[in-house]
Amino acid sequence: MEIKRLHHPLAAEFKTTEPIVLALGFFDGVHRGHQAVIREAAAEAKKRGIKCAVMTFDPHPSMVLSKVKKTVKYLTPLAQKGDEMAKLGVDILYVTRFTSHFSSLLPEEFVQQYISELGAVHVVAGFDYSYGKFGAGKMEQLAEYGNGQFEVTTVGKLSDMNDKVSSTVIRRYLNEGDMEAVTKLLGRPYETKGTVIHGDKRGRTIGFPTANILTDHDLMLPPIGVYATRILVNGVCYESMTSVGYNITFKDEKILSTEVYILDFNDQIYGEEVIIEWHKYFRPELKFNGIEGLVEQLKLDEINTRDFFNGQSKDN
Fold first, then answer.
1. pLDDT by residue (tens digit) across 49-67?
2. Class of 189-315 in CATH
3. Cα(140)–Cα(154) distance, rounded to whole angstroms?
4. Per the database record, which ranges form the Riboflavin kinase domain (predicted)?
5. Could you tell me the residue ranges of all domains in the chain?
6. pTM score, two decimals?
């Protein structure tokens, strides 16, 4: 998949007459609703024998439009978003820099200066997609603004678990630690990517050596607690249990850490980039009076982790 970064005003080098099918959206999470939009675009592109493209934005529009300082934690940072889209058959990913000037475009200006200039002959987006200044442009107006230059497909609402499948709903379940619900709405386990760094190395002294993971600050983590996870290391996936917390049994520092105990694993992996799949929340972080109590709890966590994955294997 080719990634092209756009900045307003659109540079001449990106203006083309080569036809594409273009999917529109921010697509944080690339969840099942997003997948429906992208698959529709990919199918239309295949039918026409042309390339499938997606336009997304960076940074999150709310960071630019908010009148106060705002940070956003992403379900899928840009690189991961691209990886998921490539799996769905996207040929080109347009990453449009979301700036004050770009956000000031009227709906018809956005359509003419971007969608048309990029060569779109068919545009696909979700029913609630909006565009242009103040999000005034709606899907029912898109074909009109296009002046017959492209066709439009509007993908309807996808619902599950008595709610719309959306990034907002997924964030809510993630903040609650309901990883089963997150998995169902994403259509895959929630993943975080990070680098293995040196920690206190206390775990190895009590029989539970952990890999400390440094995660990008703009990536959403599940809430504090202990989880059944899988970790991808050098292309191999291992069952694991992961703690998100502050090591309150040993110290009072307020530095959040992510520590992974990899089952049946004995290797040095400092500096490796790993991916954690989050499957099941077990318990909150607990403070113990001594190491003995902590070790007993960790043994129970390991049993619960193995039982969880053994149960998954039987279900499959």
1. 999 999 999 999 999 998 8
2. mainly beta
3. 9
4. 185-310
5. 2-160, 189-315
6. 0.93
